[in-house]
Amino acid sequence: MCELLGMSANTPTDLCFSFTGLTQRGGKTGPHSDGWGVAFYDGRGVRLFHDPQPSATSPVARLVQDYPIKSEIAICHIRQANVGAVTLANTHPFVRELWGRYWVFAHNGQVHSFQPCSGLFEPVGSTDSEALFCDLLNELQANLMRDVPISELTAFLEQKARSYAEQGVFNCLLSNGEWLFTYCATKLASITRRAPFGAAQLKDTEMIVDFRAVTTPNDVVSLIATEPLTSDETWDVYQPGEWRLWQRGEVVARS
């Protein structure tokens, strides 16, 4: 299957270290060689990079590794194709506008032959993941108001995520630039880094970063990944069926 990586931080932070570790799994240390993508929020805007080539050898991925794009929310995905051809249109994360904001979605798992409900949002590619995203947005637009309270919104997102998971495997990252919603059907883990910061070693390549040199005492940076990316830190493993809502590096709601 695919792998996910999300970031929530209380200050604009680059993802170079973790993204470098993830990309190695796209054809070098892992089999996820059927494309990759990453989205960085910048205010209400989104910087989006996609490539159907393996992330381990992609020149575009190398650009992102070396370019310290700073963001408070980021969503990454490396793909091992099961549903849909290896094409640019089928690379995650997917982006749509709803209620005046860009929504970004990435999915790990399979929900075979899924057909979204009718509505404004339609898939461009042929993946079950994009169909699920369009279905979710159509359901949101049909059932909730634009300025719905966050508690009501997360209850609805949890209900839909559970219904998708009952039809297959549904691990996801979803954001509208204000928060990051994460749902685990089978596998997710997280880590929150805060003062006192230390060093960390990537699992998939010989790279170490001492975060004391690149942070302030007030920084809080959380990562959510399918598999832990570092070998010398303790990651918090989600339970199947668990969801967490992240804002500014902290969990603000959970199941």
Top keywords for this entry?
single chain, 255 residues, alpha+beta, Glutamine Phosphoribosylpyrophosphate, subunit 1, domain 1, six-stranded antiparallel β-sheet, 4 helices, 15 strands, 19% helix, 34% strand, globular
Description of the molecule:
It is a single chain. Helices cover 19% and strands 34% of the residues. With 255 residues, the chain is of the alpha+beta class. The protein has a single domain (3-254), classed as Glutamine Phosphoribosylpyrophosphate, subunit 1, domain 1 (4-Layer Sandwich), CATH 3.60.20.10. Strands 3-2-4-1-12-9-13 form a seven-stranded antiparallel beta sheet, covered by helices on one side. Strands 5-6-7-8-14-15 form a six-stranded antiparallel beta sheet, with helices on one face. Strands 10-11 form a two-stranded antiparallel sheet. A hairpin with a 2-residue loop joins strand 2 and strand 3 (45-51). The radius of gyration is 17 Å and the shape is globular.
Quick recap of the structure?
It is built from 4 helices and 15 strands. It has 255 residues and is of the alpha+beta class.
The outline comes out as: globular
H/E series: EHEEHEEEHHEEEEEEEEE
Characterize the biggest β-sheet: 7 strands, antiparallel
Number of strands: 15
CATH fold type: Glutamine Phosphoribosylpyrophosphate, subunit 1, domain 1
Sheet-strand content, in percent, reads 25-35%
Helix content: 10-25%
| CATH homology superfamily name | Aminohydrolase, N-terminal nucleophile (Ntn) domain
Uncertain regions: pLDDT < 50 for 5+ in a row? none
If helices are DSSP runs of H or I spanning 4 or more residues, what is the number of helices?
4
Task: Give the terminus-to-terminus CA distance.
Answer: 25 Å
Overall tally of domains: 1
Secondary structural class: alpha+beta
Please give the CATH architecture.
4-Layer Sandwich
